[in-house]
Amino acid sequence: MIFIEMSRYLTCYTVNTPLENLVAEFESIVKSCDFEIVYQSSECIVAREIPGKVPFSKLVTIELTIDNTNIYQDQVHVDLIAKSDELTLHLDNHCRRSFDKLAKTIANSGNWHLQEDFTS
């Protein structure tokens, strides 16, 4: 049996914003990183990289999972996953670069506070 490792990076954040503002803020962040929202529910937002700049297998998908059960004084806990079908043959791959760009944009937003980083 052969297991192929695809690119996947995960971090956890606490966002200091009311839940109803989270979607608009996240949409603004991903748009500035060349992503578009393709799915949205009360528990999850999915964005994908806009096609055209990289091969299809390297296109990155972002999943933001929202913890609706643990909201306290406008602090929302979220998990952010970046993934693609790209093989992780190198530490510096397209998915990692896209994830780092997104993480830097999030850090500059001021409302998002890193809780755990599983990307090492």
Molecular structure report:
It is a single chain. This protein is α+β, with helices and mostly antiparallel strands and 120 residues long. The chain has a single domain, classed as 2-Layer Sandwich (TATA-Binding Protein). The chain contains 2 helices and 6 strands. It has a 6-stranded antiparallel beta sheet with strand order 2-3-4-5-1-6. β2 and β3 form a beta hairpin. The longest helix is centred in the C-terminal third of the chain and has 16 residues. The chain starts with 5 loop residues before the first strand and ends with a strand. The mean pLDDT is 86.
The CATH topology assignment is TATA-Binding Protein
Task: Just name the CATH architecture.
Answer: 2-Layer Sandwich
**Could you spell the SSE succession in H and E letters?**
EHEEEEHE
Number of strands: 6
The radius of gyration computed from the alpha-carbon positions, rounded to a whole number of angstroms, is 14 Å
Q: What's the arrangement of strands in the largest beta sheet?
A: 2-3-4-5-1-6
Strand content: over 45%
Task: Quote the average pLDDT.
Answer: 86
Largest sheet, described in full? 6 strands, antiparallel
- Which stretches are low in confidence, meaning pLDDT under 50 for 5 or more residues running? none
Secondary-structure-derived class: alpha+beta
Task: Estimate the helix proportion, in percent.
Answer: 25-40%
CATH top level class name: Alpha Beta
Count of helical stretches? 2
User: Please, what is the CATH homologous superfamily?
Assistant: Kinase associated domain 1, KA1
